[in-house]
Amino acid sequence: MAGGEKIICCIFFIAAGVFSLAGSFFNWNFFFNSRKAQTFVRLFGRTGARIFYAGLGIFIIFCGIMVLVAPE
Q1: Per-residue exposure over 26-55, b if at least 16 CB sit within 10 Å of its own CB, e if not
Q2: Structural domain count of the chain
Q3: Rg (CA), the chain
Q4: Are the CB atoms for 7 and 68 separated by under 8 Å?
Q5: What is the pLDDT of residues 20-54, one digit of tens each?
Q6: Could you tell me the CA-to-CA distances from 3 to 39, 41, 45, 54, 66 in Å, in that order?
Q7: What whole-number distance in Å separates Cα of residue 24 and Cα of residue 12?
Q8: What is the pTM of this model?
């Protein structure tokens, strides 16, 4: 992957992770009422889904940073 494409990809992953983390932290209704999030809300309850999405956000941010700093 070229340098510019790598940076854009990493920024996208980090932004997605921040969005997931913010959605869980601020308990956004539009976030948890979406069709895809409703699956996890039904499985784990609202609090469990918030914990799941917080963990997912942290994991995605971590992956984006690791790809960014990895040697080519």
Answers
A1: eeeeebbeeeebeebbeeeeeeebbebbbe
A2: 1
A3: 14
A4: yes
A5: 999 999 999 999 999 999 999 999 999 999 999 99
A6: 37, 38, 41, 29, 14
A7: 18
A8: 0.90
The whole domain housing 42 covers: 3-69
Q: How far is CA 45 from the centre of its chain?
A: 19
Which amino acid makes up residue 51? I
Q: What is the mean pLDDT of the chain?
A: 94
Return all residues near 1 (Cβ < 8 A) that are at least 6 apart.
Answer: 9, 72
> How many Å apart are CA 12 and CA 45, to the nearest integer?
28
pLDDT of residue 1: 65
The encoded tokens of residue 28 equal 């956004």
